[in-house]
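BUG: 3D viewer hangs when loading the predicted structure for this chain

Environment: internal workstation, default settings.
Expected: structure renders.
Actual: progress bar stalls at 90%.

Input used:
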Amino acid sequence: MTTTLMAWAAGRRSRAALLTRRFLGVPDQGDEALAQALAAEIRAERPATLAGGAWRLIELMDLGPLPEALADALVTEIEKTAAPPLPLLLPTGTRIADVESARIAGEALALRALTKAHRQDDPRVRGRLDTLARRGPDFDGVTRRASALHGLAADAVHYPHATTRLVDELARAQRPDGGWGEAGAFHVVQALLSVEHAEATEALRRALPQLEAVRGADGGYGSDERGWIAARWLRRSGRA
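Structure tokens produced before the viewer hung:
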């Protein structure tokens, strides 16, 4: 599967494909220039949601230096309480149609971005992380718990109990076919990939049939972001 994924990523003009090439050790000659061009395109975007702003920040950090002003703006944005527009479509392709799940997912993605931007010790961010760690393991449903895990994972050292509980809950919810029912497998896998935890790795291995089921003839997995997740999923599962 790695060979077909390499063929899929070759020459593809997207951040996810560029990261996949780097990860697999087959960068294209023009990738540095491509990273700069993609970053310029992303900076020109004006996301309308908290999740969109968080993802914009994550993309820019993947492509180049930390955009300090955007990180500062996201700290302010995370304090707002307006309900997100529905449905919320996440970069993994997961579509969330209820307000509370969308709110949790948007805030968790913002916390992921802000922790990656080293803003976790800002009191406004730390307070949100503390609340997510306290409430997240008891959230109803796989989608909400996966969002919570993804939001906490980059600062898991501060929340070992919550992180372990969330991983255990997601592993217990896994079905015989390796999936999680209506909860998008890529949404859950993205969260499990974000933590170094033995039970998470085992759950990722059990979920591999879900990956094989959606592999396209071009070697991709339905979207560029899913291709990037697949590369890490295969590596973590010992298949790459």
